[in-house]
Structures are given as C-alpha cells and as structure tokens.
# Entry
Amino acid sequence: MRVHNFSAGPAVLPEPVLAQAQAEMLDWEGAGMSVMEMSHRGREFGQIIAEAEADLRTLLDIPAGYRVLFLQGGASLQFSAIPLNLMRRGGAPDYVVTGEWSAKALGEAQRYGPVNVAASTAGGAHDHVPPLARWRLDPAAAYLHYCSNETVHGVEFHWIPETGAVPLVADMSSHLLSGPLDVSRFGLIYAGAQKNIGPAGLVIVIVRDDLLGGASPLCPGLLDYRLNAAAGSMPNTPATYSIYIAGLVFKWLLAGGGLAAIDQLNDEKARLLYSFIDESTLYTNPVARADRSRMNVPFMLRRAGLDEAFLAGAGERGLVQLRGHRSLGGMRASIYNAMPIEGVRALIDYMRDFQTLHA
Ligand code: PMP
# Structure
C-alpha cells in the first residue's frame, strides 16, 4: 500500500513516473540495460538528457539566451557557486532573507566578500515577505539573491521583485514547476530536484547567457557555469538516473496539461488546507495570508502535548512525514505537484477527527 507522503524532500513522486521507471528498470527502450548502467557519453543517455532539457524548456517556456544545466551538489552548493561566479560583476550583492534557506545562502556568500542584506525577517519569526518598498537595494549590486519559497517557514513570494538592471537570482528549490513562471525576469534560477522535480542528487540551474564567464579565479571548475554550459552539463559524470527520472516527471507534467493545469490544482489543494486550518479551533498557521506557501504548509497545534499523538494517529491512516522542521516544531504538510488532492482531503479528514477527539 502506498502512503500519502507529506515529506518536504526527498518527497512524493508521481506514481505513473515510478511505474514507468519500474517497467524500464532492466531494459530501457531496448538498450538491454538500465539507465543506471549506461555511459553518460553514449547515444541513449544523450537522448535522455536532451529530451529532459527540451521538455523543461517547453514547460517553463524558457527563452533563447538561457542555458539549462543539470548539476550536482544540491541547492546548497549553489549557495557557493553563485557568489563564485557572479560576485565580480559589480558591487556587493544584495541578499534578501525570509527564512532558513535564504539565511544559509547569505551565510555562504559572506565567505567570499562583502554582502548587503537588502531586507530580512531574521529578527522576527520569518512569517512574511517584507514589501519591496522597504528593501535597501543597491543599483550597482552584482546581483540580488532571494528564496522564492522558504520550505521550512512556508513563506512564498507570489510576485517577482523588480531589480532593474541588477540580475535577479532565485532559489526555487521547493516550488519550481508548481505553476507558470516568467523566466525572462531572472538572471539565474536554481532548484534542488528532490522536492518538485525528481530524486536527490540533481540540481537544475537556468542561467542567462550574459552571466556565463567572469567567475572568480578561485572558483572550482566544476562550479563554473561557463564550463558546465560548454560541456553540456557533463564536465564529469552527471547524476544520470536522477536526470532520467526528472525527465519522466517533465513528461508527466506535459501530459497533464503543463504548468497552467498543475497551477490550478495546486491552488485548490492549498486553498482547501489553509481554509480548514483557519476555520479550525485546534490548528494555526503563522504566516501572513498573502505570503503563504502553496507547497509547504507548517501548522501548529494550539494545545501543548498533542504532537506525538497527532503524528501517531496520522501514521495509522497512512499519512506520513508530517513532523515539522526541527527549528520550528509542530507539523508541516508539503503538498508538492505529485501529492494528489485525495491526499490533502485525507489529511483534512484526519485533522478534523483528531480535533473532535481532543475538543
Ligand atoms: N533551498 C531550499 C529552498 C531548500 O528547501 C533546500 C532543501 N531543503 C535547500 C536549498 C538545500 O537543498 P540541498 O539539500 O539539495 O542542498
């Protein structure tokens, strides 16, 4: 029996994708071997990565003039790659801190040079997005970095910051592909795969051509975007199996109507869960309504001492990985693209029953 998996990542994958991977495990399209066993330089894998890139370009309508890179090291290694590649392009970069992940990105960038904190909710509870009018932006900054969906705090940007000529760099690890996106507004987008895209071990970078080159002389070759682009994401062996599964996820999204269709479904799932939480007597979500994440929904129980009972009862109904992040406590339901609406309904039914039991 498959459970409803609310993990923040590695997270639920679409069942048809897993079934196809299973069917192709021993013999991929007549190659007589698994994708895991193929040379990354061979014709078969060449086709897999080319299709994955083409399908991602179709899904996101990525304009010409952007490179798509399939890299390793997770989103966290991009916290280093970004300053190492882009810092020398202008003045100290601007960083916006709205939660755990943008704070980590800032901390890493500070190892390489001066950084300007343009806005931060670090003094508070990371429960909102500060309005753009209050950001201290530097028009000469090398770039502006922010995290457009904070996986731990459940804070999502539902708008794109206007930074003029300063390249906009966004960590979209936990919501890329959750809906349509105007890629042309960004200099660089990156996302670890293990939430909304595929298995761990893969990070996707979408970078504008003019940001290639100019890396610090100390930038490791494997982190240099120009070298990675020139080598077609293969200066060394890439995460071949993760790329293959990500490619199947892209095909699954396309077959389901693309990002406009998944956007509607994500809206509906989030609306159901947040309205139940807001109307309930037992549960609360701390995030400002306009900035709530559609993907990661943290919630607390108002009565102390019930967390373990809540989690145990949920497990009995096949609702798993609901424990909140260790820094926040409480619960968190991650409801990525691959979480069916039935999973959200089953969670709400359980939450309602648990509330009645403990009224
Ligand atoms: N950024 C965000 C928004 C994340 O959610 C995560 C992982 N939870 C990371 C970065 C770090 O990703 P990784 O573990 O792939 O380095």
Observations:
- The first helix runs from residue 15 to 23.
